[in-house]
Protein 1
Amino acid sequence: MKSKNRKAINISSRKTTAVAKTAVHRSAGRIVKRFSAPGVQYAVIEMGKVTRLALMITPVGRGPVHMQLGEALRSLRTVLEKQAEKMNVTVQTVFLKDAGDQTLCEQILAARYVDEPPVTTFVHQPPCSGAALAIEVWATGGKTVYVERPLPNVLQVSMGNVTWTHCGGITPRDTTGSVYEQSLDAFSQMKEKLKKSGVEMDHLIRTWLYLGNITGPEGDLERYMELNRARTDFYEGVQFGRGHVMAGVRQAVYPASTGIGMCGAVITMSATAIDTDRKDVFILPLENPQQTPVYEYEAVYSPKSPKFVRAMAEAIGDYVVIWISGTASIVNSKTLHTGNPGKQADQTLTNIELLLSQKNLARHGAPGAGATLRDLAKLRVYVKRPQDYPVIRKVCEKRCGINIPIIYVVADVCRSDLLVEMEGLAFAKRIR
């Protein structure tokens, strides 16, 4: 893995003022600032000379989609202008209530960003709030941060001789084929984008796979099962994390991932890869001691098991970034609390809590690292039934607090008896 020189982000100082509820949380030598107001929540993560910003924006107004997107972009601009230094928007995911609004939203966003577009993925998942759209945004700033856009909808961020490559909005070129064929084509495009950006497939650490009608029939199987078959076949022979897996790891290494449903019958993918030649950067795949690794699932769940790990931790010097895969109310390999959305949400958060814990990271060979639910930089919550949103939100706010950026969208989950799925990202500092 080698990092490249990138185009520098211009830096400018700005006075910061608080206009709503703000919390400053100090933990393990790092500072996380959280902000919560109607329509916008964000977290500021300071890692040495680099600042990262995670925002969840849901319009409060209920006018036409262009007015709601305009409100969201004004909220984003206000947040960015309040930061102490210039922040560069790098990645955004737009959740849409109506797929027919995508073209107009693309045009508005193109006019907004002009020469500095972020990687953008449109996902046809209605926000639980009833808004026409919601946006998850990542921004990065700092004097040591460099940015390059080698291809359309591909962006590379370098800091401290570590480069993250983000690509998104990947859809099959031919949507008339089977789920297996469309999935293979999307994975092939992902590989091509990474390779043209100077990154090999084995550097992949995180994927998002959005599949329309995810539990619907596909021949004698379900559509998600066929996606898993394509992923297994495409990953064959790839040695993920080659040269940068933490010493002593004996388990399988795959990217962290979310496989989730959306409206329609299409497939959309996005991904992140890491690239570095630093000797103090490692990746560490994480599993939950109370869950069977998904790549070892019995054939009843998928003839070719899903190839991903429960979470992927990146140890970068003194810091650890933990990418949490899509997580649900599963213990061992079985669904718990069938029919009870509140208990499923609570069990899902318990699974994430166990995954992030210092005890679990020490068990995997990284003592002195770990996080809690209150250390999450952001959380996505996929709600299967709109009527379950209030009870699921209540559980999340009780367990995680009200200041953590959370976005709630309606989406089918990969098992018919699962009512909720969650994913997130946590930052921690290693105690040596």
Protein 2
Amino acid sequence: METALTPSPAKAEIIKNAKAHVLALLEEKLPSKLVYHSPRHTAQVVKEAKALGEAAGLEAPDLEVLLLAAWFHDVGYIDTYDGHEFRSAELAGEWLAGQHYPPDRVALVQSLVKATHREAERRTPLEKLLVDADMSGMGREDFFANGELLRAEWEAALGRTFSNTDWAESQLDFLSNAHFYSSEGKKRYEEQFKENIKAQRKALKKTEKKRKKKDEEAEGTFAEPKRGIETMFRTMYSNHMKLSDMADKKASMMISLNAVLMSLIITYFGAKLGSTSAALSDMTVLQNPIIAVPMGILLATALGSVITAILCAQPDVTSFKWLKRSPQIATNRRVNLLFFGNFSKLSLDDFQGGMYELMKTGDSVYTNMITDVYYLGDVLTRKYRLLRLSYTIFMVGLILTALSFGIALLYKM
């Protein structure tokens, strides 16, 4: 004959049926964003609830109620996130009533499910056992792995994003304020729980250290030269030198070309004018004065082009007359102690003092380098403006020379 505490065979099947029902419901309706509160989590809670119940020596009816509550405690997530415990209790009551489960036992299952809410009070041993099973993750070795799943779930489902430091702080705060309620839970999880707190503290320190290092690398400090900054200045100096050299070569080419052209024109006219007999017998320009127009344009073109090219190629040194009166030479943003055009106006003592002051702080070093780059760019701007003018004069002059020569030929014909 069965005792009052032993479930009937029909009742023993209810846990198996509840498992099949809950897993099917979760797999079918649970949002895919819930990567932590998944069927796997529910199965883990049931496993821990069974272990805790057996360790507590629960009678079969109480263990059955505990396991039923464990299976249904998160099923409400299929409909709502916040306050899902109350929806879980409703779904559990509906299904158990359909299984003709005793009403008083249905109410007990529902009360256990509601006890898993974060603000609920846990008074009875069964409530404490279920809550400990639900929170057993903080006392297991997979705490950090599950924590990342919960972080991903909150970001996807709730839109709550965390930096690594913020998440580590929130996890440590959670562990520091959490505890297990039942003696069985404390005995089963307490040791690993303390290890997890220690590990979380270490992780927070490590994360904070990485964050500070990353911030320092991103912001940079002028007192400590960074490889990226040095590479930037090296590249800028190299580019400016190449551009300056290119401008000088182009200017030299224009000077050579126009000098040769002017020499030929002047030599030709000089030879013609220097010989009276030639001038009287065979001076094309005198016989045909209109030819002097294209020749004059060509000469003016060569002269204008060569003058601007010479201005482009000639050395240009920036200097400051008031440099000697500067009270703080090294820190003055308009003064560049690294450029001879500035420091050549100083006495040796002033220059040495400024250099020693410059080497004390990285800020002054970078200030002088920035100033140097700025004035290099200023010189390059002038060079390329004059070079462009030289090429423009040469191009326009050649066009006018060709047009005027064509007109002269038509006139002659």
